[in-house]
Amino acid sequence: MTAFQPRVFSGVQPTGNLHLGNYIGAISRFVPLQDEMPSIFCVVDLHAITAWQNPKELSQATREVTAAYLASGIDPKKAIIFNQSQVKEHAELAWIFNCIARMGWLNRMTQFKEKAGKNKENASVGLFAYPTLMAADILAYRGTHVPVGDDQKQHLELTRDIAQKFNNDFSDRIQELGVGVPNPTPSNELPPELFFPITEPLIAGEAARIMSLRDGTKKMSKSDPSDLSRINLTDDADMIAKKIRKAKTDPEPLPGDVEGLKTRPEADNLVGIYAALDGSNKQTVLKDFGGRQFSEFKPALSDLAVAKLTPITEEMRRLLESPGEIDAILKDGAEKASEIAEPVLRDVRKIVGFLDVR
Ligand code: AMP
Ligand code: TRP
Question: What is the CATH code of the structural domain delimited by 227-319?
Answer without folding.
Answer: 1.10.240.10
